Amino acid sequence: MYFHVQEFINEIAEDEPDPAAANALQEGLGGQFGEMRTMMQYLFQSINFRGPDVKPYKDLIQGIGTEEISHVELIGTTISRLLDGSPQYQGKKSDPVDKPGAAGAVPLNIALDTGNIHHYLVGAQGALPVDAVGNPWSGSYVYNSGNLVLDLLYNLMLESTGRLQKCRLYEMTDNKMARSTISYLIVRDQAHENAYARALETLGVEWRTTLPIPKTNAERFPEVKALIDLGLQSKQYSFDLTAQSEAGKIFQGASPSGDGTTLDASEQAPAGAPMTISPERREEFSPGADKELQALIAATAAMEMADIDATFGRLS
Amino acid sequence: MYFHVQEFINEIAEDEPDPAAANALQEGLGGQFGEMRTMMQYLFQSINFRGPDVKPYKDLIQGIGTEEISHVELIGTTISRLLDGSPQYQGKKSDPVDKPGAAGAVPLNIALDTGNIHHYLVGAQGALPVDAVGNPWSGSYVYNSGNLVLDLLYNLMLESTGRLQKCRLYEMTDNKMARSTISYLIVRDQAHENAYARALETLGVEWRTTLPIPKTNAERFPEVKALIDLGLQSKQYSFDLTAQSEAGKIFQGASPSGDGTTLDASEQAPAGAPMTISPERREEFSPGADKELQALIAATAAMEMADIDATFGRLS
Amino acid sequence: MYFHVQEFINEIAEDEPDPAAANALQEGLGGQFGEMRTMMQYLFQSINFRGPDVKPYKDLIQGIGTEEISHVELIGTTISRLLDGSPQYQGKKSDPVDKPGAAGAVPLNIALDTGNIHHYLVGAQGALPVDAVGNPWSGSYVYNSGNLVLDLLYNLMLESTGRLQKCRLYEMTDNKMARSTISYLIVRDQAHENAYARALETLGVEWRTTLPIPKTNAERFPEVKALIDLGLQSKQYSFDLTAQSEAGKIFQGASPSGDGTTLDASEQAPAGAPMTISPERREEFSPGADKELQALIAATAAMEMADIDATFGRLS
Amino acid sequence: MYFHVQEFINEIAEDEPDPAAANALQEGLGGQFGEMRTMMQYLFQSINFRGPDVKPYKDLIQGIGTEEISHVELIGTTISRLLDGSPQYQGKKSDPVDKPGAAGAVPLNIALDTGNIHHYLVGAQGALPVDAVGNPWSGSYVYNSGNLVLDLLYNLMLESTGRLQKCRLYEMTDNKMARSTISYLIVRDQAHENAYARALETLGVEWRTTLPIPKTNAERFPEVKALIDLGLQSKQYSFDLTAQSEAGKIFQGASPSGDGTTLDASEQAPAGAPMTISPERREEFSPGADKELQALIAATAAMEMADIDATFGRLS
Amino acid sequence: MYFHVQEFINEIAEDEPDPAAANALQEGLGGQFGEMRTMMQYLFQSINFRGPDVKPYKDLIQGIGTEEISHVELIGTTISRLLDGSPQYQGKKSDPVDKPGAAGAVPLNIALDTGNIHHYLVGAQGALPVDAVGNPWSGSYVYNSGNLVLDLLYNLMLESTGRLQKCRLYEMTDNKMARSTISYLIVRDQAHENAYARALETLGVEWRTTLPIPKTNAERFPEVKALIDLGLQSKQYSFDLTAQSEAGKIFQGASPSGDGTTLDASEQAPAGAPMTISPERREEFSPGADKELQALIAATAAMEMADIDATFGRLS
Amino acid sequence: MYFHVQEFINEIAEDEPDPAAANALQEGLGGQFGEMRTMMQYLFQSINFRGPDVKPYKDLIQGIGTEEISHVELIGTTISRLLDGSPQYQGKKSDPVDKPGAAGAVPLNIALDTGNIHHYLVGAQGALPVDAVGNPWSGSYVYNSGNLVLDLLYNLMLESTGRLQKCRLYEMTDNKMARSTISYLIVRDQAHENAYARALETLGVEWRTTLPIPKTNAERFPEVKALIDLGLQSKQYSFDLTAQSEAGKIFQGASPSGDGTTLDASEQAPAGAPMTISPERREEFSPGADKELQALIAATAAMEMADIDATFGRLS
């Protein structure tokens, strides 16, 4: 069973809208090696896991899988913010955007010359479950052979490829909003790569100097270096509300990446970052409330909620 | 940010393996109107949500979306259990299964005459991210127009269709394991249908006698009736760890289904059911640990975990 | 602009339900060489047609394309009838079907052992836009190079392949309902093959003894022979309401198939067969009207329609 | 059975070629909420319709479905015209285009920098059965649950989403050719939305102020306003050649959109607009007739057609 | 540049037709981890290879990739033979099969109850480029990151998964024809796994007891044991006509699987097995030559070929 | 069984990087009518071929199919070279590319404004198995009906369409590297078109003036004319190592294209062009060897290979 808090797993830096960067980031969300894929792959591996004797491996996969849901939330929001307001931002007068199409205005014509026209036409300047060339995410991406060593080996390769692509993404844009999320995911992919590499060590592999794969030297990227200095590549959170995870039996000892750090699974979750709601975009008819609807909404908002807080007893 | 507890959202009844039922249930997991779809649709709608003034609607969608992740876990596990051990169960002697292929044995030949051979060939008697005819789940299923009324209308239709299909699934099998999950999801789909119907009421629609859509009279199904008697069709949990959800401003008052109940959003989550790990299946080489691996695993299991429990301070 | 009459293009014979035959027929509806494909291909070729000097070729393609819409209607209805009532027919007592799922009955369990479970689970014992292995129809099937000779050559190959597959379908089932439609489409595919072959003759090709391709000798099939005796393989209707089609400039002279007949484009359309509406299927909740709905429907039905008939002036 | 007249359902305004607008319009043709989808969805719903007592609902769906075929023809032709001649138009000298590739000329290099290179490479400056990011149309889009209320609810949502996307399309381009078709489809989508909303009213729903969904206030678009002033949003044609449609039993009374109009189903079809054939494009080898072919074609054109007009007795 | 000899890379044992086994084998041909995938992945990795200093790695991948084309030929032919004649074999009288459909016979009705009806309906009892549930092979399967270590790691995982699936296939059928090819591919996958594991050893990884992954102990399968006894799991052929391959610089030394063998890259290719052509199948109209065609073919066959053998100077 | 030589089937001219041309060429590689398709179609037709009496037709298809593998290699390499170094070439300073991302540099930002971002993000400036709009190659493209005449007719249409698209590609770019491969493939497609047309002649068709289809008059393209002057459109190589091909029984006599040449099947293969390995691209981390890896690689390279050349006895 899953729970949610209204916080992001990491802070998203502020910068100007950038639809091209938004589209590139789609690969990290809905691409073959993006966050939707890691999330789904680890959830299915957890669901179908076999071997009561090897619970620590399941807990490791389950914990990383839970984190990936938050990564979907993080990168999806980043894409949404990179798109948000881009028609107005690109030099359009505010009036036509406020009065969409009035007298024949073309407030959305930016969409014709963008990475994915669906960002404006199908969605309302928001993230889509597709990759950077518009292919929808597919269930055929999920790998779950049921053989423990193979699944771990695949997961290692998956995290390594995800990190490689994110390093390339970093090189494609200098938008700070995009880079803050890219850099965070590079470091967390590294942590997950360490987790699967360490698990394979417990099953016999010796990596010697091979890790990390690939050797992108991402510490050359300033935002990445700042996170590595905090040791985020060597931590794994449990995201487990009742502390039953045994992932720490695996995720401990010297990092297989040979960077001199020690793996640490002692924390439940990182401190979250505040979550806000995006503004109205009238040219997208989103959320599209006219005066009548606004009156109805106001009436709803004014209602007294049942005193539900008192009942939140178990966890809060 | 998301968290997990090692419990199922509902108990799965015990019964014998049943691969045909397992395959039918795949529609409820990876089908166009299954749980992966509702989960992803609501997550994207939450991520891309617009309108700071309409937060209760976002919170409603977010809360249901979080529940859907637990539904994926529930139905995925149900499929896995329906498949688990089916080769042996179907009259095969235990020896060939314990010694896969030895001397030319064919312990997996059940797979040639089953709904989806991938259950045995690609997975290891486990759930797959596909529908009941083997089509992989697709990101193109996700609907998120950004217009609030349209998104709510779509969500209502989605839950109604999901419930219709589950009623048909109920009519296809009398396996108790399958039916316990089907029945639970019928009732929860009804709750979500009520949630979106109620939200549309706050925005102006009057349903009169139209709901529920469709009128399947699922209370004719005994397992469904038991859950309706508990009022589960009129509750919506928040799954929100820090009680910030305002969904209760919408999910309250008389049920739009006209069944005489009152909508109740006062609970955080249902009591969970215990989670266990599936046994080894040697004919699938899953998890596939030989003696050497078992020795290595035992060494890992014997390690003392760092005393991480004390650090679980914020939520537990 | 298109019009409809409430008649089928050919009569569908009566026989018992046969879900296996229904599923095989899906190839002829939604398969790569089925009727949805010919329909869409010819519609796109008509829309994108170039060359004011070659209007007869456009008219030929447009006329065949219009006929294909009626073929979609015919084969779709045939599939629907082959499925209709199959759960009850296969030895189930009528009660559980009339009271779906009551007391735990399993009226739809036939669906678990059928060609495509979606026929019962996603649809309500009706046709689907998929092929015989469940692949959805795809726009990537449509061929429209814009080069006239190539498009005609492709169309010839397409009709020939469609006819080959339908001859194989004939060999797969002896259900009379299925065979009446299969046989009609074999003969009409032959007519279309003649049309494209004749068009290529006007552009220089001499077929000599090559046609028909392939030589399936379908006159061995009694139902086919009956239609060939009527000359249906050598007629092409215009389906053109205002007689502007010039297709007859091409579709005339000796048949390129060398069967001694003369091609004839003089008729607008065949006589139609009566159209009826399928009965309710309660186990599918289709159409699903309960008493309240039935009362509302009855009220609608009792309304006097505006006297619209008088206004149907132009064409009737 | 279907028929055709060589007229468009609406006139297409004249303007200059505009490949970017053409590509955006592909969403309205081959997109998930475009005309191919509505057409196929309503055709399948008509074919699989259940309930002899509810024939007016079938007739309503059948009539709209027939109209959608004409919409496919209209928007497909609009795309074709927007593409037609664009290489020459964009400042290329006429000679290289007339003599494609002669001496190494690059008359099609515009294709490298356009929305969908397939418009020039796979097609010959014509419409494709794909959406605006190049995804082929898929049969998986079609929804037909068999439950009447659900199908109507889905259809309402489908028309509303189609209209929303077309309003966004209007905001993306000011090309008059594109806008004439976009505007016509906005108003017709509104009519269909009214049809399904009205049908749901007869089944119990009261929309009060909710309609239209969404409230795009498209009358701000001048071309749309002109059509609304004519009342086109409140008419539904039967497209039924023999006046058997009972759709008027539903489509009558005050418009559910609350615009003060009365729904009117008394007309068979609108007056059509003349249809012409696109010119040759030599750089596409389309239609590609050289001198020898032209001589053969001329010989065909000179043939006397059989006197087929006299035989067009039933309808003309 | 590629060449062909009219020989199979391994002999296919004789046994009776078995369409269920044929369909299972499709996973090994067109599945996500089948031979079409390995073939295409290694061809693309060879084409896009970077690093003049690391030519031995390219040569290793190229050599295995060339072998995979022969594997496609081998498993495709095995499937074709498993299907060939199955309608007649399953107890059908020979007459209806020889005279397809005559007097209404149903010689192909086996197709309605088989793994993939396309084997009889779209193909003519032959192999298809799809997996065992009918999904077409997809270019999205191909992995080629460009990073050498990652590509090798992926290839290792790919071969290991292919071998795992083939071990499961072995357990599904005891048809000797199927098993001869399955067993050969198990052993060759093992050889390729050794090749990529050895390549990773040269780049720093120490596998210790981990290999093979997974530990299926396939030597329990008698046909596999026979090939292992010949050492086929430790050989890699170059398939390089002019002996320029440097793969032997990598594929040498003790096998990383720890079976006591030494890797050997000294042979160009194995001895081939004779290739024959499948017989006519009249019920499939394949090849479909009637008397007239046969006469034409005989005339062609009687022609004297130009004396081309003398010109085969370079290689033979 | 297949073999390889380390040579290209034709020389690739030198020119500057051109990512737009590279992307257009993807249609010729992974498009529906590209080289991957012809290769796979002919391989499957060879594998499934029926009719011992018609071996020359099989040999013809097999020989062309083998050539197509070399075409995949040729066009794939051409795309790779067109992409190679493009970030640096487009005016980027060399330093940031040599030190990817150092201090926040954006060496790959060209990728955001290119035909397919995957060329830089998923691949490492290399070819992909997709078409020019990014659709992955699909097994559903392969046509193999089993009927000889139909398969030959389809193959003729396939080669003709491939040639048509390549003529359009020629008109899209004047990059010499792109055009050298485009022109070669135009002429080879013509040869294959002649082969299938000639085969159909032996089965009864008389083409008269129809061929080539379409009449693109590609000799207007200077690079094409040079190859036609060499007669390459009228040669077919066997690519058969042991001279067992009987394709020459068909591919002889006057060319069906009516260009006055005589078909010639006497050569085994063309002279090949030298093959080189692409340089490192540090901004792609490809191949990604750091100092430690380079030392390990150097150690491997220094090893003495076993004296394998002497063993290459059969063919060299």
TrEMBL record, chains A, B, C, D, E, F:
Polar residues biased stretches: 254-265
Source organism superkingdom: Bacteria
UniProt organism field: Microbacterium terricola
Sequence similarity: Belongs to the manganese catalase family.
Protein name: Mn-containing catalase
Pfam families: Mn_catalase (PF05067)
InterPro entries: Ferritin-like, Ferritin-like_SF, Mn_catalase, Mn_catalase_dom
Residue ranges of the region described as Disordered: 250-276
SUPFAM superfamilies reported for this sequence: Ferritin-like
